[in-house]
Amino acid sequence: MPADLPKRRALRAAACLGVGITIARFAPPVSPLAWFLLAMLMLGVGIVSRGRSATALLAAATILIGGGWYALRIQTVPADHIARRLTEQPSLITVEGMIVTAPRLIEERAGRLGRFMPASPRTHLELRVDRWFDNEGSAARVSGRLWLGADGDATNWPVGHRVRTTGMARAVAPPTNPGESDRRLWAAAGDIGGQLNIDAPGAITAASSAPNTAERIEASIRQRIEKLRANARAWLDNESHARSADRQPRALLRALLLGTHDRDMGELDDAFMRLGLTHILSISGLNLALLAGTMFFLLRFIGDRPRTEAVIAALAIIGYLLIIPVRAPVARSAIMVLSLLAGETAGRRYDRLTILGWAMIIVLLIQPLELFSPGFQLSFGVVAALMTLTHPVRARLFGERPQRDSHGTLRAAIELIKDAAASSLVAWAVASPLAAYHVGVFSPLGAIATVLLMPLVSVIMGAGYVALLATLAVPIIGEWAAPPLTAAAELLARLVFLIDAAPGTVVHLPRLSIAWTLLATAAVIWWLRPGGPTGIEGYSKPARLARWACTITTSAWLGVTLIAPSLTSSERMRLDTLDVSDGACHLLRIKQDAWHDEAVMFDCGSLRLTIGERTLPAAVRALGAWRVHTVFLSHPNVDHYSGLLDIVQPLGVRRVIIGECFQKAADRAPAGPVAFVLSELRRMGVEIRIVADGDFVEIAGARIEILSPPRGSTWKLDNDASLVCRITLPPRTPTVRSKTRRGEEGPIPPNATILFTGDIQREAIIALRERHPDLRPTILELPHHGSHNDASEDFVTAVNAPYIVQSTGPRRLNDPRWNDAREGRTWLTTAEVGAISITITPTGEFRVKEWKQ
């Protein structure tokens, strides 16, 4: 390396620290003491060594320190931590502690159907516990925090108060579906030991023990900060003087300036996502950089004082952090921007990438799990790319930037636009592979949308930040700033919708490997580096050939991924029943030939109305089935269709098959949720087909027959009008024998069948058995989530299916009335084992996988 180039040891140290954290996360748990002792040994030997061996030993010591730090922060639970007292099964507990986050009242249901569903107010907060009471009332010292949810309005207990409460508590649950992150890790990182639910605010009372001096000081500080936040944000949160038409622009302002999202955003959230602009709606390095840039711009009117400007910009950022809740992305961005400002203030020569490396180290030491978050990877990756690639890309596209003194104001504005175009192109190109890996989305118009919208976004953010900070001193300023900022936000929303209406705003992709992501990122950086497409400036002929080979390999790899079947050669059919708690969602994939399989979904709903926003698309993508063209909806109960509208675009739904009861429900209530869903499906160009007994659909060679209800039938209960579907696979092999989960063997027929029953109850079950007495499914969906009656038990016994799938929440788990029917069968319940996978191999063997281990 030439002597004049920075060595950037901080980047190497950050990389080694990241390697150690990664090893510790995925390797079997090791004591932190063992990690650190070995690190000290390596460090000692490295200090007395020379040359490359010393470098290798110091790198190994840093890796071991990273592993030990992860084990200490994430995998080590103190002996008195409340997490040691809780299990996944809820238990009644009484605790005392301090409220450490401001109570947040949620009065409306989230999701696209939330407006149709009544909801009771619910308060959320965090409680740092210090005393645990047993059944006799004896207290024990504990540590840690609890997520607390209270039915009703409990905001009269502000942050900093010591309280006592009794409720049902449980440990943080493990992931139960493919594609879900492990909340236990993030809970451990935040010192969270579990979740506490209480029935009413009255269950929260003043603590029996008085706070000590340190707690009183802490409570006073927390209350002052919360009051400061409330005063500074009042003009944004206040809707009493706003017109109804201003609700969405004001919600957009809150998202841009505070990073908060609420239902008033509506379709605007999705439009930002499709355009690849979601980073604008979360507090990130971009927001804090704009705040610092605004301060620099304003301070230039009083003269050129670089150090003073950097100090004041840093103070503005610190003041802003007092206004908003400092979550992990905010803290990460603040560390990054403040580190760069510290370099400016020092008055010495410095290398920005080196400072970025030190910022990475600080973030990982504060929170090692950040290494695996998309925000961390995108933030540091994009910032590093902007530092190193923007100038050469700008020079290649528009030429070198002229000196400011050599041109006027108009030319300066044009040059700024050129700079913005170059930086937007770099950020979009470098971020695209990572975005495709994490969320399966590619935004072709991302760079163009950023160039078009960022000037307006910058003005709104800059003026908004100044208004927030000024309101701390003069509250009336916020009221003055609200109308013009609301008008600007309304213009921004209209522009976003206008660009989003263009075709090809988003391309949804299948599950991609980390290896492809790294290769694609390398190819992008290779093309953006000085050398250009021809390579004549900086690359030798072998380097140019290698770059083309990397690009072609990446493209070919992506092409094969797009056309490859989601099922392997050892899978002929696979049924995945996702854990949606109280609801149902079954994904069935059938393989037609070596290069073609097809996916169909039976129901896609839950009482959690946001289930389709992330959980279902992430699970389907993690399973490899990124296209689901056909969805069957059994009946118009919200727990069977609430996720449908959210999955239409990401999963490519083209056809929805419903029963007559669905259309009748829409006709009875034209302003209701069922009619809304059907109208939205038609607006999105989805075909809606109504079927009844005797109809059938063929998918990938399999026959899907509708067995109930008969056309024109009426039922006393809406549940009885559920579609009953029998899926028959074409025979390929003779009868085989298969081991069940319990190790028992039973005959499996050559024509394997699956029976989906929806929520049919007594009358429909009796009628179904009369019309189809020969039902012998191999896999049976337990009717009505497992609600027991004598007809349903007789039905399960009569059809004698060797595999029973029960999609339900905890309240129907292990109902003893089903004990006799369980005997001799593999009975799989999502509330117990999470998502369920049943695979039929080409030889007829059945394999069962339970997601929750």
What's the quick description here?
The protein is of the alpha+beta class and 853 residues long. Helix content is 46%, strand content 17%. It contains 25 helices and 27 strands.
Describe the model.
By secondary structure, this protein is of the alpha+beta class. 46% of the residues lie in helices and 17% in strands. The strands form 5 sheets. Strands 16-15-14-13-12-11-26-27 form an 8-stranded mixed beta sheet. The protein has a 7-stranded mixed beta sheet with strand order 17-18-19-22-23-24-25. Helix 8 runs parallel beside helix 10 (328-346) and helix 20 crosses helix 21. Mean pLDDT is 86; it is low at 532-536 and 733-749.
- The residue ranges in which pLDDT falls below 50 over 5 or more consecutive positions are 532-536, 733-749
Average of pLDDT: 86
Class by helix and strand content? alpha+beta
The biggest beta sheet is recorded as: 8 strands, mixed
Strand content: 15-25%
How many DSSP E strands? 27
Gyration radius, in Å: 30 Å
How large is the count of helical segments?
25
Strand order of the largest sheet: 16-15-14-13-12-11-26-27
> What is the distance, rounded to the nearest whole angstrom, between the alpha carbons of the first and last residues?
50 Å
What is the helix content?
Answer: 40-55%
Shape: globular
